[in-house]
Amino acid sequence: MEKVFLAGVRIKQRRQGRESGLEELRRLADTSGGTAVGESVFRIDRPNSVFYIGKGQVDFLAQQAADAGAVTVIFDINLKPGQQRNLEKALSMKVIDRTRLILDIFARSAHTQDGRDQVELAQCQYLLPRLAGMWTHLERQQGGIGMRGPGEREIETDRRRIEKRISLLKKHLDDIKKRRGIQRSRRLKLNIPVIALCGYTNSGKTTLLNTLTKSDAVARDRLFQTLQPMTRRARIFDRDVLFVDTVGFINDIPPQLINAFHSTLEEIEPASVVLVVLDGPDPDIEMHRKVVEDTLKQLAFDKIPRLYALNKCDKIYKDCHDWKFEKALFPDHDTTSECIEISALQKVGIERLKSGIYDLINK
Ligand SMILES: Nc1nc2c(ncn2[C@@H]2O[C@H](COP(=O)(O)OP(=O)(O)OP(=O)(O)O)[C@@H](O)[C@H]2O)c(=O)[nH]1
Ligand SMILES: [Mg+2]
């Protein structure tokens, strides 16, 4: 396990509700194979162009991370290539930002060729503007004398290689997009309602898909287990339906990933119902719900009727008799979307959920 130091950054004025801790960053780091040996949260007025955080904070961080024996510092914000480079120099350690960390997890989770191509495209796009900086590092390590010339040439060669790779991958992804489009229109012709399971990563989408369709897709307690959409047919009372499992959402999703995974997310498009799966006991549930809603809006899927499943309620209530099974509405909610308490794992509340779906598809 790689020893990592977690660095959170909070902008002082931008305090929205409960300030979330570094719990998610720790989970992300853990999923990508790191062990957190220490952490600090830095409060700043505004990001600075050199290091993002202040110079004094950088010195403090360098000391803390070194004392903890870390070899890598992971930030919970996105850094510009220059900031990342300056931080690596100042800290004498590898610096990973949020996008790079998430890309790394996606790379580990991509088990199909399509998934690997999607991740590689996102990684290439992330890498391209950072190439020049990588050479600076090498130069520093090797003394720099006489290195500039060939180095610059090497970067040019690398850049061209990566650009070529990007256009090849884009072509692959176009083909995937077409293929998925054909499959989708075939499904549409069947005239079977599609129910898309969407939600924050690790909320239990795949577990719910398994429960609803009696399948055995891999569900695990790790972030971004599912990268490829999966469609399963099932019956709800007298109607055939298709459930689609989708890639999980996350706060501050790297733009490169949205682009690369667009064909995956297009599977939500033909849905009659978006079933939003929420991790009920998670203290960040409000943030999760907001991220899901914002992402659906960004993808222009916010007009599709929505139903909420408050999952993992077995962790909230001690036994099944305590369950309210209310079709609770969120306090600040402006629509009449229902929220049904369920446990995908213990298979509780599933009939009620099915009734909710049934009502929506028969509207
Ligand atoms: N206690 C409890 N755990 C659950 C429930 N549903 C899912 N889980 C657990 O939550 C973890 C994540 O479940 P997944 O179904 O893989 O979640 P997901 O939303 O598909 O996650 P990604 O594909 O990674 O985005 C697993 O360890 C599940 O066993 C539930 O109702 N109760
Ligand atoms: Mg999943």
Topology:
Layout: E1 2-11, H1 23-31, E2 34-44, H2 55-67, E3 72-75, H3 81-91, E4 94-96, H4 98-109, H5 113-127, H6 131-141, H7 148-189, E5 194-199, H8 205-213, E6 230-236, E7 239-245, H9 255-260, H10 262-265, E8 273-279, H11 285-298, E9 306-311, E10 327-328, E11 339-341, H12 350-361
Parallel strand pairs: 1-2, 1-3, 3-4, 5-7, 5-8, 8-9, 9-11
Antiparallel strand pairs: 6-7, 10-11
Helix pairs in contact: 1-4, 4-5, 5-7, 6-7
The protein binds guanosine-5'-triphosphate (GTP) and magnesium ion.
Guanosine-5'-triphosphate is lined by residues 199, 201-207, 219-221, 223-226, 248, 311-312, 314-315, 343-345.
Could you describe the 3D structure shown?
Helices cover 44% and strands 18% of the residues. The model is unreliable at 142-148 (pLDDT under 50). The longest helix has 42 residues, at 148-189. The protein has helices spanning 23-31, 55-67, 81-91, 98-109, 113-127, 131-141, 148-189, 205-213, 255-260, 262-265, 285-298, 350-361, and strands at 2-11, 34-44, 72-75, 94-96, 194-199, 230-236, 239-245, 273-279, 306-311, 327-328, 339-341. Strand 6 and strand 7 form a beta hairpin. The radius of gyration is 23 Å and the shape is globular. Strands 6-7-5-8-9-11-10 form a seven-stranded mixed sheet, sandwiched between helices. The protein folds into two domains: 2-96, GTPase HflX, N-terminal domain (Rossmann fold), CATH 3.40.50.11060; 182-361, P-loop containing nucleotide triphosphate hydrolases (Rossmann fold). The protein has twelve helices and eleven strands. With 363 residues, it is α/β, with parallel strands linked by helices. Bound molecules: guanosine-5'-triphosphate (GTP) and magnesium ion. The site of guanosine-5'-triphosphate has 23 residues, from helix 8.
